[in-house]
Design brief:
Layout (H helix, E strand, L loop, with lengths): L5 H4 L2 H18 L4 H4 L6 H18 L11 H5 L6 H17 L4 H13 L1 H4 L3
Helix pairs in contact: 2-4, 2-6, 6-7
GO molecular function: heme binding; metal ion binding; oxygen binding
InterPro entries: Globin-like_sf, Globin/Proto, Globin_bac-like_CS, Hemoglobin_trunc
Pfam families: Bac_globin
Length: 125
């Protein structure tokens, strides 16, 4: 097992920024969830804010220096009624992007564990 932090294994600030860009793009291409993401492109300020929150969330949650100042998972997803298919589509996109970026299997597994740990805070709220 590596002694590097998850943040370091994800490539630090630049690696996380690249991952977030590609994950958001994957979500916009995914027919299961794209309707939730495509409208953000119409508001560039909101679009960049969304990606900034995702970068900070991933950085802070992986041991990096960023401080996440966005809403909690339940607050951010309240009223969205996210079901199993959408949740799995998001998770699959994240894992596929990690794979395309050459992230090692152990780190991908750790990210999957984090995604599943948030499931109850995101689904059907």
């Amino acid at each position: 097992m590596s002694s590097a932090t998850l943040y370091e294994r994800l490539g630090g600030e630049s690696g996380i920024a690249a991952l977030v860009d590609d994950i958001v793009e994957a979500h916009m291409q995914n027919p299961t969830i794209q309707a939730r993401y495509l409208p953000t492109r119409d508001d560039p300020v909101h679009f960049e804010e969304l990606k900034g929150h995702l970068r900070d969330f991933l950085s802070a949650g992986s041991g990096g220096p960023a401080e996440y100042r966005g809403r909690s998972m339940p607050e951010a997803h309240r009223g969205m009624n996210i079901g199993e298919a959408e949740y799995m589509a998001v998770t699959d996109d994240i894992l596929a992007v990690l794979d395309r970026h050459g992230v090692d299997p152990q780190t991908r597994q750790e990210m999957l564990g984090i995604a599943y740990s948030l499931k109850d805070e995101i689904m059907h709220l």
